[in-house]
Amino acid sequence: MTDRKARIGVIGAGWWAVVNHIPVVKANPNAMLAAVNRLGRAELEAVRQEFDVPHAFEDYTEMLAKVRLDGVIIASPHVNHHEHALAALAKGCHVLVEKPLATNAADARAIVAAAEAAGKQVVVPYGWNFKPFTDEARRLIAGGAIGRIEHVVLQMASALDDLMAGKPMQETEGAMFRPPASTWADPKRAGGYGWGQLVHALGLFFRIADLAPAEVFAAVGRSPSGVDYYDAAVVRFENGATASLSGSSTVPKHRSVQIDLRVFGSEGMMTLNTEEERLEIRRRDGRDIIVPLAPGEGGYACEEPVNVFIDICRGLPVENRACGLVGQRAVEVLDAMYRSAESGRMEAV
Q1: Do residue 342 and residue 221 come from a single domain?
Q2: How far is CA 1 from CA 25, 34, 69, in A?
């Protein structure tokens, strides 16, 4: 179908869909924004008018039934991703599912299985996965640059103490919509730093390293709204490797997001730091590899995942750098992390 535009629908036309996904679709000459869905008649009409969308629905099932679509972008609240993804896949659509793919491991696996059965793709828009340095890190690890992976240290921190505490996110003042506390700061609706942010770092790691998580032990520090401000976890992978995982919501607002990944292997180690824009291999035999990164290259890629999704919907042979399995493994770790924080025990994924 490469001779026509991909017909894209959006379920959950809220803050991030309006700020990023919808404008990217509208700007892509090979895509058509065919339909949008969100709750709230007035808010839905505002989106329809702002982006000149031909079809707008409060009921997503009506949208899927009435409008022929090639792909659906799912940007609804975290707890609705599973329901919405399965419905779109059942209609024969590829899906781009915002992070997290789901809010428990079973639901994530169900989405991946449904996509495989339908012959469709799942894209989880982990922006860093679509950066050239991530491709290079993945190539080096797969090529044995550090040998067998034995231990991982993965840290992420963001300036989101307001959002995780149930307050308006400072950076979104003046936006058409703002991130709702019901999504980000309610512990009963998969709010908190793990589901909302640490999932980015996990998605990046599982793109670079083909490891399957086995069990997790964790503790969390709570925000004023009761969700996790801070995450501290130990992960064991099926190959016996271990990991130390850390997340924090309280970086000062004038500082950028931090991701620091260190992978230790039988022959050396890899360091990837997005804030410092550093990718390097340090080998025990001294044959080190330094990958130069240009200033600004460590920044998050917002547009690339959507444009790749559009190409997938057009039937082009493009690489999906954030496939369903990557999203599934991130969810498996987080699901076990939250269960462990409640039980005080090591939890299987």
Answers
A1: yes
A2: 17, 16, 13
